[in-house]
Specification:
Helices cover 53% and strands 0% of the residues. It is built from four helices and no strands.
Length: 77
């Protein structure tokens, strides 16, 4: 993959479709991202949003009390 999508679940679905039922050959999926490109920024954004979402799910961390308006806007934006 050389063109990351905004939604990582869609990327994973595309990778999953490369291996069909009954196929006996192994596949390898690579992500090739060039440094200092918009694609690199998309990956950084995906990582940041995943970290915020993971912290939201973990209620024990108390993140809900520390969450700012900007964090919420970035998560849903």
């Amino acid at each position: 993959m050389i063109d990351p999508w905004w939604n990582p679940a869609v990327e994973q679905q595309a990778i999953d479709r490369t291996h069909r039922i009954g196929q006996d050959k192994h596949i390898i999926a690579y992500k090739m991202i060039c440094k200092d490109t918009i694609e690199e920024k998309i990956l950084q954004l995906q990582v940041k949003k995943k970290a915020i979402a993971d912290d939201l799910i973990n209620i024990e961390s108390g993140l809900l009390k520390k969450l700012t308006k900007d964090d919420v806007m970035e998560l849903i934006g």
